Amino acid sequence: MKKFLKIFVLLLIAVVIYFRIEIYPQLDLISGFSAKSVASGHFLDNRSLETIQQGDNDIDKVDWATNEINDTERFVTSKVYGLKERKAIYREGLGATLINDDFDVTKPYLVPKRTKINTNLPFPYGNLEPKDTVFSNVDYDKLQKVVENAFDKKGEKNKRTRSVIVIYKDKIIAEKYADGFDKNSKILGWSMTKSLTGTFFGILQKEGKININDKAPITEWQNDERKSITINNLLQMNSGLEWEEDYGKISDVTKMLFIEEDMTKSQINKPLIGKPNETWNYSSGTTNLLSGILRKQFKTHQEYLDFWYSSLFDKIGMHSALVEVDMKGNFVGSSYGWATTRDWAKFGLLYLHKGNWNGEQIFDESWAKYVSTPTNTSNGQYGAQFWLNAGRKFPDAPKDMYYASGYQGQMVAIFPSHDLVIVRMGLKEDPEFDFNGLLSGIVGSLKK
Predict the structure, then answer these.
(1) Mean pLDDT, to the nearest integer, of 422-439?
(2) What is the dihedral of CA 292, 294, 295, 296, to 10 degrees?
């Protein structure tokens, strides 16, 4: 009996030590993720707590959190086994923001000015429903089967697709939503937001207000070897700066998203671990640093907030689009962009048409070529804030395909050689979800 008690006590001590060393430090991140996810899903897309917990938050460890919604004051609190309570507030126009105990919720704040342009045109250039168009070279039966196959059958949670839309020659030729979602549902794009953020540099460059080949305007780098890093290096994720992009543990990216007040500074203090333009390394910290550089291009915070909407979202009719901010009012350009599936598709169409939107050139044609050209040392995987299929990640999809990509399998895929845009939103990513089959199947439904 004594031997049994001794073993039991030793095991108990081991469990306590493991919890203290391995688990307890993660609780801030777990409850932070949960609070932010619930606040965004509930207040931006009107989803119920049950829906969010069974969908967005049914992730290993995140499902440990207990969440409470305060609809009156519009905030969410989350904790794990009663520990490490975190709070996310919702502000109209800014979305949900995870805050710390020092954040002053009574302080006035600025919001972006929005302009909704009403036109008498069908989708994608107006607000009317798309006109039915039948293309003789589209095998609609095959297309329908491919799209249907991207979704779970009733009761399954294997593919977890929420929406798919296929746009060919500016016309919707297939569109499907999972139960609980429709054309008006706003869905988080996660890292597809990086492609949005990069686009603003293309817009500013067209306007002659920035040159991406200039040195990055970071004061902290001017007295060391980092001063040679250019804006181009940052856009291409090829700065040589240290960064750990691991969502399964306490890492640079999880600390930034769920702890930092100012996410534009997370990458600034990182040292070089390689030479600029010779050391490709995917980094959400880099994109938020770019958001900070964008903010410096404007005299006022209001101008910075307005620019993202007036120069792009509202100009191309992405009226559902919203990028959430951190505690310092910076757009979280790495991760927190929301839009309906149709509006994400409009973004893809803008690139398909090389920056031209119904006659207006939003960015130069050369910008679309720039973002879709392989970055040095990326092995054909990456351009500038866009992923590429030049390295044949998806072997049966066209090599010229490039795409915005986000956590859990968000994708806006652009096919210049096929006049095609495909959007898939969901909760499973490659290889668990068969993107190669979806993309190649849809392209294969277009007869030559």
Answers:
(1) 96
(2) 90
